[in-house]
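Notes from the 1:1 (GR / supervisor)

We went over the backlog. Supervisor wanted to see one worked example end to end before approving the batch request, so GR pasted a single chain during the call. The sequence is below; no edits were made to it. Supervisor asked that the structure be written out right there so they could see what the output format looks like.
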Amino acid sequence: MAELAAHLVDHVFPQVPVRQWVLSLPHRIRYLLARDHDLCRAVVAVYLRTVLGFLRRRARDDGVADGRSGAVAIVQRFGAAFDPCS
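Structure output shown during the call:
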């Protein structure tokens, strides 16, 4: 994960402000999404559309006529019991 983050910062993200958004779901839904890849993709798509739409509206309200955003979505498939030190 650290290598991926370093790659994104060094080679992918432009020199602009970056914000992290996190979607946390109830455990029952997490298990359902872990089993159903298509449903997981659909949920991520709706989430990204919502966040990017919010950012576009906010930019427009701040006077930015052609505001553009991008996203990198990473699905975490382990729970709170995950211990990266073990």
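Supervisor's comment: Confidence is low (pLDDT under 50) at residues 82-86.
Batch request approved.
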